[in-house]
Amino acid sequence: MNETNPEIEASLDALATLCCESLSGTADPAVDRSERLLKTLLMSGYVGKKKASFQVDLETRVKAKCRDCAMHRGGALSSMSEKLAKQFADLARWESKNPSDTSPSKAANISSATDA
């Protein structure tokens, strides 16, 4: 964790807290909130600094924050962290695509595409 910055630490801690709340049943998993945290994590440079996988980092933090809950609901934690890891990977892939990756640029309107 020594290669991270305060934004990465805050985002990972907030995600771990969200997972703990969900595991304990005190809150429903907030998809929109987790997506914002994942995007913040991505924009803070987590992808370039990580040594372990996102899922391992998240599970380690959740186990440190709410050990009893995480121990008794290990399957739920694994499922939740796997889902968040997939969301993070999809988001990283989406953010790294260039517009030219999918198709060439096109004219904005018909008059710019023709001689009309």
TrEMBL record:
* Protein name, UniProt field: Uncharacterized protein
Q: Cite the record's Polar residues compositional bias ranges.
A: 99-116
- Region entry Disordered: which residue ranges? 94-116
| Top-rank lineage group of the source organism | Bacteria
